[in-house]
Amino acid sequence: MRMSLAQRVLLTWLFTLLFLIMLVLKLDEKAPWNWFLIFIPVWIFDTILLVMLIVKMAGRCKSGFDPRNGSQNMKKKGWYLVAMLLKLAFCLALCAKLQRFTAMKLAYVFIPLWALLIGAMLELAYNIFYVRRD
């Protein structure tokens, strides 16, 4: 499953545009849709990314793969998987709160997003300050 950069950019723009159009229609009260329906483009895009990530991670399980090569790459893919799941948890909690399915405090809704942002800052700091010594 290889996508060119142009295809990835086009796919990202398409799903972002669909999400923003649906969001504007909902906020202008032109469409009485459920909040879970508004986030469908986001979830479709995330599902595509998750499937591609899992397929790449599963490729390490095939016979003849040397586990010593790319252990750093596997850690990065693991972080990507955790980040995607945190984003999914935030979107689900946000939709449940906006749809009034739960009486959860807004601070609790944002916990997955805060964890994602803290993890991203740690990953950035690790990539900036880590000096590999060969």
Automatic annotation (TrEMBL):
<dbReference type="InterPro" id="IPR019396">
    <property type="entry name" value="TM_Fragile-X-F-assoc"/>
</dbReference>
<feature type="transmembrane region" description="Helical">
    <location>
        <begin position="106"/>
        <end position="129"/>
    </location>
</feature>
<protein>
    <submittedName>
        <fullName>TMM60 protein</fullName>
    </submittedName>
</protein>
<keyword id="KW-1133">Transmembrane helix</keyword>
<keyword id="KW-0472">Membrane</keyword>
<feature type="transmembrane region" description="Helical">
    <location>
        <begin position="36"/>
        <end position="58"/>
    </location>
</feature>
<dbReference type="Pfam" id="PF10269">
    <property type="entry name" value="Tmemb_185A"/>
</dbReference>
<feature type="transmembrane region" description="Helical">
    <location>
        <begin position="79"/>
        <end position="100"/>
    </location>
</feature>
<keyword id="KW-0812">Transmembrane</keyword>
